[in-house]
Amino acid sequence: MRQPAGRSARRSGGERKPREERWAELIEVATQVFYEKGYDGASLQDIADRLGMLKGSLYYYIQSKEDLLFDVISAVHKQGLEVVRGRADVPGGPLDKLESVIVGHVEHTCRNLVPTAVFLHELSALPVERREEILGSEHAYQGVFRDLVEQGQAAGQVRADLDPRLAALSILGSTNWVYRWFRPGGTFTPEQIGAEMAEMAIRGIATEDVLKARTA
Amino acid sequence: MRQPAGRSARRSGGERKPREERWAELIEVATQVFYEKGYDGASLQDIADRLGMLKGSLYYYIQSKEDLLFDVISAVHKQGLEVVRGRADVPGGPLDKLESVIVGHVEHTCRNLVPTAVFLHELSALPVERREEILGSEHAYQGVFRDLVEQGQAAGQVRADLDPRLAALSILGSTNWVYRWFRPGGTFTPEQIGAEMAEMAIRGIATEDVLKARTA
């Protein structure tokens, strides 16, 4: 939640909580409107109408539609990153952590289909600098996966000939893609998808020794 | 290339070739304009300007902007489907074919980044019936991958406990995702990406026996 300095000052004090709630509601509604109409098709007027606010009141929170898109995308990206980092940042072997990271990422995606779709479809509507501000110059998300693959190679658990970046992109592809076909109440639960995708991914990159131990 | 009956009659005879060429050019330019501006942001006027045609002349080929999007998406989908079906429709074992299908799909995606992006980003702008007309009610593309996984299970080459649809979606996810990060002249060639993704995918789904034989 990026806030210009002047704003956070105004948001402190006794009225803090209601405004934070209002902010959360604004992000939620904006996400939904961007999803339904696309960023180009959505107007601040649409969002204000949905909130029962005057359009002018939105400028108390944001300066432009682009600001709002930035905040919407930042929010879901930050949340997802916390999930995968939290699962990577525990004691244990790199492949166990990678497995847990994949499951967490799939479940987070399945439970946040609308914000994920806005993130993936509308990111390119932001100027390059703001995109990089969100993703990080080193692609923070991808980095979590790549680091674990590299740690797996160092531990002799991941095939040495595999390029860690390609492995990370392959895993991110199959798990991100879930947002396009998963429907709540459909054939598979988020847990099933997470477990099966993790199994395929780990087997796809593991050394023979790990695979033998896995089946034994 | 869908053509209303009345049109194809008008397009026969001596002038056929120039008009087919004009049509190909129209599809190419429309793809580029939809890519740059998004379907919502693009107008038939933009496309006519780029072609150096009067907007009215476009109506000789199509009836609406939606028709054009349909034709653009159909074209790349049909082409990609021909690639994967061609590689699945040869003599050989199911996993060898799946490997070849994955390589073909990745290479096709890398060489058709712009039409693929339009296909994947703008498909949802078409009404459901037209989407299904392209994808097929059984999702023809996914079907090629799923059928090979099922054949692999029947042959004892693919883990029996794996859901073939989930396996197909996982492989399609990692290979489709390539359109988002591949850049010509970057670190990896299409051939490298295809080969590594195929290796990971096959290992991810194969039985122990196949894996042993693969390393031996």
Going by helix content, strand content and strand pairing, the class of chain A is: mainly alpha
pLDDT averaged residue by residue of chain A: 90
Gross geometry of chain A: elongated
Q: Which two protein chains have the largest interface (Cβ within 8 Å of the partner's Cβ), and how many residues from each?
A: A-B, 36 and 36 residues
Q: Can you count the helices of chain A?
A: 13
Q: What fraction, in percent, of the residue positions of chain A are helical?
A: over 70%
Q: CATH homologous superfamily name of chain A?
A: Tetracycline Repressor, domain 2
Largest sheet entry of chain A: none
Rg of chain A to the nearest angstrom? 20 Å
Which architecture of chain A does the CATH hierarchy give at level 2?
Answer: Orthogonal Bundle
CATH level-1 class of chain A:
Mainly Alpha
Number of strands of chain A: 0
What assembly state would you assign to the polypeptide chains in this entry? homodimer
The N- to C-terminal Cα distance of chain A equals 47 Å
SSE ordering of chain A: HHHHHHHHHHHHH
Topology:
2 copies of one chain form a homodimer.
Chain A: H1 5-10, H2 16-41, H3 44-51, H4 55-58, H5 65-88, H6 94-111, H7 113-122, H8 128-135, H9 140-154, H10 164-176, H11 178-181, H12 190-205, H13 208-215
Helix pairs in contact in A: 2-3, 2-5, 2-7, 5-6, 5-7, 5-8, 5-9, 6-9, 6-10, 6-12, 9-10, 10-12
